Amino acid sequence: MSMNKNTVLTWATFIMIAMGLLLIGLGAFKYDQVAGWGFVSVGVGFFANAWVFNALKGRV
């Protein structure tokens, strides 16, 4: 299986979305203190990075 640049970006996007969901879930359900807001904000940052990776597909 050869992995070209688009395949790598697709996998990176998928992993970033999964990690974003995991961090938002941790912030929403596990941590009720101020730390929960930090987890949620980092999860949203992962979504922003995944959006950028998805936009780069076919352009790199």
Keywords:
60 residues; mainly alpha
Verbal overview:
By secondary structure, the protein is mostly helical. The chain has one domain (5-56). It has 2 helices and no strands. It has helices at residues 5-30, 34-56. The mean pLDDT is 88.
Distance between the termini: 20 Å
Specify Rg, calculated over alpha carbons: 14 Å
How much helicity do the residues have? over 70%
Number of alpha- plus pi-helical segments: 2
Overall geometry comes to elongated
Pick out the low-confidence regions.
Answer: none
Return the average pLDDT rounded to an integer: 88
**Helix-strand topology string:** HH
Tell how many strands the DSSP assignment holds. 0
Q: What class would the helix/strand composition place it in?
A: mainly alpha
Largest sheet: none
Strand content: under 5%
Number of domains: 1
Q: Mind sketching the topology for me?
A:
Elements: H1 5-30, H2 34-56
Helix pairs in contact: 1-2
